[in-house]
Design a protein that fits this description.
295 residues; alpha/beta; 434 Repressor (Amino-terminal Domain); three-stranded antiparallel sheet; 42% helix; binds adenosine-5'-triphosphate; nucleotide-binding; transport; XRE family transcriptional regulator; Cro/C1-type_HTH
Length: 295
């Protein structure tokens, strides 16, 4: 993937009429740092990239690869979706997902959340119904499944190189930055098989976000992860472009970073609400969930 960060930075800075010095003040860095970023001598740390995306009010995809700012169009439509195993699991699911949404998929164990993800990815086929993707599923759908699907016989850096080659990652610098933020940099030469459960989750997560996506599906991404990584991760997710659907019960993060919550009960969508609307009724998402998910 061509990294167009330098030219994007110059363009955005000029559009806002900031001098290099003025931008440096906003970013708490030296003017020389801005100059080095603009002429390609160095790349900012991931925290500074996120700060830049805040200053310019653009997402990381736009900053790093110049892809158009977030689209509000419908990118995914699900019509009358049914799926059974020994018993009915998904019953008449209808959904429209827009390109800029941050959606938390909630529900008790065994209600069909992962099955819905698997049918979206194509691992399971629906019995009935239609899924329409308004984007290229092979290029623009990123996934972190519930079970890690890492290759144990590879070293961490070999795995990342392989995934980057297949998926055309943003840039080597960004991947290295992410490795550092996920505290995996020192494990670069370790075999995947020797990583702890939490480290494997982090590697899986990292691999799911090293390329741009129109839709990112995450199944319980932060389970088993340390708090620092969790905080960083949600902040990063908040700044990438594209839509995100996450199965999570990390309620504090839903309050902070999400725009919509969908509650699945017995294989059906029982609630579909905007986070702002819930907050305007003085409820946290956790309070709302406890009330709505009662039998
Ligand atoms: N491949 C399968 N074969 C048979 N039954 C399955 C299969 N996959 C899922 N199920 C069943 O479908 C139901 C829904 O499972 P699913 O994993 O989608 O739930 P979930 O909401 O993601 O649960 P959890 O929160 O525990 O991950 C469960 O009863 C499960 O046993």
């Amino acid at each position: 993937m061509k990294n167009v960060f330098s030219s994007q930075l110059i363009k955005l800075r000029r559009q806002r009429n900031f001098s290099q010095g003025a931008l440096a003040n906003k970013m708490f860095v030296s003017r020389q740092s801005i100059s080095k970023w603009e002429n390609g001598e160095s790349e900012p740390s991931i925290d500074k990239l996120i700060d830049l995306s805040d200053v310019f009010n653009v997402d990381l995809n736009y900053l790093l690869i110049g892809k158009n700012k977030i689209s509000k169009e419908i990118i995914l439509k699900i019509d009358s979706l049914y799926k059974s195993f020994n018993k009915p699991v998904l019953k008449n699911i209808n959904l429209k997902i827009h390109g800029n949404e941050r959606i938390a998929l909630l529900g008790s164990n065994g209600t069909g959340k992962s099955t819905l993800f698997k049918t979206l990815i194509g691992i399971e086929q629906p019995d009935k119904g239609k899924i329409t993707y308004n984007f290229n599923k092979h290029k623009n759908l990123n996934v972190m499944p519930q079970q890690d699907n890492l290759i144990n016989d590879l070293k961490v850096n070999e795995h990342i190189n392989l995934s980057s080659a297949i998926n055309k990652s943003y840039s080597k610098e960004l991947t290295n930055n992410l490795l550092k933020k996920f505290n995996l940099f020192d494990n670069k030469n370790d075999y995947v098989s020797s990583l702890s459960g939490g480290q494997k989750r982090k590697l899986s997560l990292l691999i799911s976000v090293i390329r741009p996506s129109k839709l990112l599906l995450l199944d319980e991404p932060t389970v088993g992860m340390d708090l620092d990584t969790i905080d960083f991760f949600w902040r990063y997710i908040d700044h990438i472009g594209g839509a995100v659907i996450t199965i999570t019960h990390d309620f504090n993060q839903i309050d902070k970073f999400f725009s919509r919550v969908i509650l699945i009960k017995n294989g059906q969508i029982s609630q579909d609400a905007s986070v702002d609307t819930i907050h305007s009724h003085n409820q946290t998402i956790e309070q709302w969930y406890r009330i709505m998910n009662k039998e």
